[in-house]
Amino acid sequence: NAGVTQTPKFQVLKTGQSMTLQCAQDMNHNSMYWYRQDPGMGLRLIYYSASEGTTDKGEVPNGYNVSRLNKREFSLRLESAAPSQTSVYFCASSDPGGTEGNQPQHFGDGTRLSIL
Amino acid sequence: AQRVTQPEKLLSVFKGAPVELKCNYSYSGSPELFWYVQYSRQRLQLLLRHISRESIKGFTADLNKGETSFHLKKPFAQEEDSAMYYCALFSGGYNKLIFGAGTRLAVHP
After folding, report:
1. A94 interaction partners in chain B (CB closer than 8 Å)
2. In a 3-state reduction of DSSP, which class is residue A2?
3. Which of A42, A45, A58 comes nearest B102 by C-beta?
4. Residues A8-62: pLDDT tens digits?
């Protein structure tokens, strides 16, 4: 099993360009998450999807949109990239409420995004 | 407000020295806490969760509700322990996590 797979691994954009970050998981998890990781700020939740067909805002949703395409895939879109969105983006998945109670999140390798 | 505080950005120790990475939390209710580790340019991996009371790679962490702390400890640091460590709090509802800012542990030979 690959776990959580993110593409691309690196990307450089110009201000105003748009881009979609892709995430897929093969663990049959119900919930998926997008975080951004910035120095000195840890990981902050952008959006999450509790289950297929639902999405909700996290702590820092402005400037982003998401799509839960199916149970496996959860994409993050930047419609008009800004330098403040330069960050490392992590996708994660988990299966809350499973037989062992709340389960930890499993993370992808991350996407390093630079916006000039 | 729900919050996780890791007061140290960097902890630098020599190999064989004891290590304690501090984590304090603010949560109204019964907290569920985790430690995640991120080795250089790798994905975050779960290191510990307080409810399982395990010892992983020699690390332990005890939840102290009186002090609202979940400090990560290891009696003898190894060079391969050098990494970024994040404390995280389960914030309820769909497994959402609140992360601390992280502490970089540097273990020198």
Report:
1. 95
2. coil
3. A42
4. 999 999 999 999 999 999 999 989 999 999 988 889 999 999 888 899 999 899 9
